[in-house]
Amino acid sequence: MPRPSAGERSLDLRQLQYFCALARTKSFTRAAEELSVAQPSLSDQIKRLEHNLGGSLFDRLARGVELTPAGEALLPRARALLEDAAALPQILETLRDGIAGDLRVGAIPTILPYLIAPSLRKFVDNYPDVNLLLREATTPELIEQVQDGVLDIAILSLPVDQPGLVRSELFRELLYLAVPEDHPLATVTRLDLAEIGDQRLLILKEGHCLRDETFSLCKRAKAKFTSQFEADQFASIFSLIGSGFGLSIVPEMARPHAQGCRLIPLKQRAWRRIGFVRLERHFVSKPMEAFIRFLRDLAVQRRARDISKSAG
């Protein structure tokens, strides 16, 4: 590929956004769908970026694309540039009075409908000038989108080991065994997972952190299940449990949605850490500060309820 002259070299933020999306998805088709652009347009912009930088950024393979060494070197710098560009409107907004502007928030499927959604009206009413954009995805997807500047903050299950992120724990949540209401175990007040046998385990598909937490808990307890069934969403798991199709490990915050199920406390050390992540060098806008306060208030309220239950 001919190397452009210094005068020909230029950086297009849109091209960098396309580059980061393609690096994340490793597919022109998936990247184009995520960006809501035509695939030929995406391909053309990537070629223009490669020409402007004077080198190939991707190896085109039969099943997708992989970053070249040049692409690997560019990726963290491209993410940083996109982050800085995204922060400019927020910086200007901070200089003005009031709390206003865009805020892009992501959450995993086992948190958004049970923790965030029920209390979100209060945040929206208190900050009507904040344009809140929500996205639900698995933990790996959310982390990549925070790193790429697609999201400002993500609420998920900790720990998260990726570098360059600020991590903050909000609270710890108990996990329970969910069984049908008419199941022989439904009358047990506290259960050792090792005592379970000849049962079907219902789990979320790969990529969901609760799946990994479930496997880790079962491994520590030496619990054995006869088979496994994977579901796309937690609502399906609750419906299947209610119909007697199997058992599952579920978080306490999902209790109000567990119709037809009985949630049994476990003798094992069974809980997950709920928190949020954001970029370490990300400018903290007023909308983000307000949303973090909102999350911490939710955590305080939850701890107060836990103390009240313990006292009762």
Q: What's the domain count?
A: 2
Q: Which structural class fits the helix and strand makeup?
A: alpha/beta
Order of helices and strands: HHHEEHEHHEHEEEHEHEEEH
CATH-scheme architecture of the largest domain: 3-Layer(aba) Sandwich
How many beta-strand runs?
11
Tally of contiguous helical segments: 10
> Which fold name fills CATH's third level, the topology of the largest domain?
D-Maltodextrin-Binding Protein, domain 2
Give unreliable regions as ranges: none
User: How does the major sheet shape up?
Assistant: 7 strands, mixed
What radius of gyration results from the CA coordinates? 23 Å
Helix coverage percent of residues? 40-55%
Mean pLDDT, nearest integer? 88
Beta-strand residue fraction: 15-25%
| Distance between the amino and carboxyl termini | 72 Å
Name of the CATH first level of the largest domain? Alpha Beta
Q: Please tell me what the overall shape is.
A: globular
